[in-house]
Amino acid sequence: MNSDKWYARTADEAIAFWQTNPYDGLSSSEVKARLNKFGFNQMAEKPPEPWWKYFLAQFQDFMVLVLLAATLISAFLGEYSDAITILAIVIINAILGFIQEYRAERSMQALKQLAAPTARVIRNGMIQQVAARELVPGDILVLEAGDKIAADGRLIDDHNLEVEEAALTGESLPVRKVANRQFGENAPLGDRKNMIYAGTSVTRGRGKAVVCATGMRTEVGHIAGLIQASEEADTPLERRLENLGRWLVWGCLAICFVVMVTGIFKGEPLFLMLMSGISLAVAAIPEGLPAIVTVSLALGVQRMIKRNAIVRKLPAVETLGCTTVICSDKTGTLTQNAMTVRRIYAGGQLFDVSGTGYDIKGEFFLNGQEFDPKKDKSLQQCLLIGTLCNNSVVKQNNVSITGLWRRKNGSGWTVEGDPTEGALVVAAAKAGIWRETVERMQSRTAEIPFESERRRMSVVYRMADGSHALYVKGAPDTVLELCRYYYNGTTEVPLTPELVASITLANESMTSQALRVLAVAYRNLSPAEAVNVSDADERELVFVGLIGMIDPPREEAKRAIALCKQAGIKTVMITGDHRNTAIAIAKELQMYKDDSDKALTGAELDALSDVQLAKIANQVSVYARVSPAHKLQIVRALRQNGHIVAMTGDGVNDAPAIKEADIGIAMGITGTDVSKEASSMVLLDDNFATIVGAVEEGRGIYDNIRKFIRYLLSCNIGEVLTMFIAALAGMPLPLLPVQILWVNLVTDGLPAMALGVDPSDPDIMNRPPRHPAESIFSRGLIRKIVTRGIQIGLSTVLVFAAVYYWKGDLPLARTMAFSTLVFCQLFHVFDCRSEVLTIHEIGILTNKFLVLAVCCSITMQLAVIYIPILRGIFETAPLSLIDWVCVLVVSGWTFILSTLRHFLRRSPGRRYAVSYR
Ligand code: ATP
């Protein structure tokens, strides 16, 4: 049989050919065997670069090449010790650079793995989520709206299934798919409506397919050929810093040239001056800047993963710190998504239901008295529809429930599927109604799946006597509109305005108690109607009742919202739920106050123009009964008001709003593949608090980048000034070339790297958000850099001049200047940890890497002064205790001064007086 023209054959033929079973799928051993035979379901990729290529790439840097040339010149002129030392320094620098870049690359790779696509399949008789690359031919794929299809397959079941195939056919309108049709062998790809193809996505409905082709054998595989690993684009900050770096290079080269020429005119040896110029240029140019930015971004991203946020697009890390509004879904993000039915309105009576979570133990009450649910027909019908119009399974200890476990107490009850539906299964089970038992007499023949826009779901069941019934559940306002009759427990009566008024009243009362309310209804279908059921059949329904369930707010969300307030970030709830329910939950979360906040419904939103919406958007804290299309309007209005918007979403239709937002956030657990693909960040735990944690990390990462820019640049200014002032003042060289290179190594290396992983300021969420266009040097950073650079330069020259002119001992003067320059920077690195707090307020030991890095640098410095062989190479002189006191006082003076200044400046009222927006 021609195995790639499955559209011309029946679903059964495909199932038989691939030796699979639509109910149980493949067994694990069979999957293993097929993986061996067919390989992984992935495109052929270019192999990753080996580690040594990263190492060699370090030697392609222009400044490194200049240094290597200097090494050769030294060797040529017989200055072997200089040549070896410079070479050693170049190699150590390359190793440091390599470690940084390789680490950044590895963490980026790890990130990609985390964001790897998955697929739902039936294997060993159970629905399982597996990595898409592990799909094999014969697997039974379970498809839902929002799924990105991971392999080619022949459909075996469909419920209003629509697939968007633009990636393959260029046709952006979704195509309706059907399992039970065949097409001619020459049918073009776009017409093969019984097939699904890898790379396309489900926009609507549900279905099942048997996988027929994986990896390079799929249609997209034929087109794509070899997929090149995509190039990671630089973030805006990285680009800005690269530009800055270029300016600095030219500035530094100019100064080095002046130093060199002045020396030569003064009669210093040509070679010495050439080497000094080169060394100074190497030391002064902050070549490590872009690498450290990447490392801090990558490490920050890893910290975010620990806090359950996966960043998919690196620039989002920078934008996170600027976020001014977080728009969040309610259900599952601000609330726990752990639903329990509490009240039921049926037959004109209000019943209470007891019990916790998904445990099926609970009783019914009417007017405070325990009530036997079997005594009320409308209550029973209500629960029956709730459990049949449902795709969730409630399990105990991973086994699906039937009446068997009814009397079993205990925990371990979980829901597989939508928690809203799980709550309905549990409520019915509490009344002795079991879907498994009912389905022995009635069987489902059709389904119109739930969609956020429709706010309802319908199923058709065939009774034992061959008749059919349509069961509908959904948002009360939506369902009520479709009802014409009312079931009062005995018979169906016309739905009068009085009845509608009492249902509406019951709904209002339940929703204002923060209950999430669903209405249930039904209609008996004629045999003709039961054949091809569509939305149009959801009419003239018989209203049965309302079911109200609690979904408690997340405690951590409450704390996170309070934190947002402190941080100047507005939080907005966007939900498909009822306005009252939304407001009640928002009040519990303290994100809504009657006097200052507004709530808008989708219908009210529709009546506003974009300009009108933008005008009031800043006051709206709750958007209720909105559909995904409204989210896009909301994002646009807020952005128009100058906000940086983070927006969550999970459904297939949330993708446009997620893309439009500055930070699009998808849900890791309940989110569809399409929403994840559109997002810049995915929440592994669907939790609002995780977003706030990520914002905090985003602010911290930006702070850290500012910290090491401050450190590197002020130190480099200090080094250049030392040489420059000495040259202008006609002094001998205060530092020899190898000494300059050494200073660069011990200060710019480990300590700067350690600053990149500095813990966030404890006050980081007490400031308003940063403006995205703000310069990296804003808020006084440039002044701090320049003044500290001058301090470092002057201190070093001063020590050199004092010792040289007073004692006339050039090696001693150089060693003292050399050590002063190193220690100035090692003291300064602690200052750079905060722009607001003093090191004593932060705690010296709170960044252990930094303490370790500084200790390493001190040891290295002592080594070049006290180990005889190194002393020879670096031409240093041993320092006495008095010398050290001098060095430490002069270099620590700046540290003490800045500490004092921090203390004096610290008046709580002024600390955050700067407005960043
Ligand atoms: P949020 O948008 O905050 O995540 P939500 O679940 O209320 O919350 P939607 O999923 O868009 O938002 O649902 C909209 C409405 O549709 C709900 O308020 C509810 O009335 C109804 N609904 C939700 N789930 C189902 C379902 N499985 N079957 C039928 N109706 C549902």
TrEMBL record:
Record keyword Plastid present: no
Residues in Cation-transporting P-type ATPase N-terminal domain copies: 5-79
Class in the EC hierarchy, top level: translocase
GO MF annotations in UniProt: ATP binding; ATP hydrolysis activity; metal ion binding; P-type calcium transporter activity
Keyword RNA-binding: no
Transmembrane segments: 54-77, 83-99, 247-265, 271-299, 708-729, 735-757, 785-806, 812-830, 850-869, 881-900
Protein name, entry field: P-type Ca(2+) transporter
UniProt organism field: Thermosinus carboxydivorans Nor1
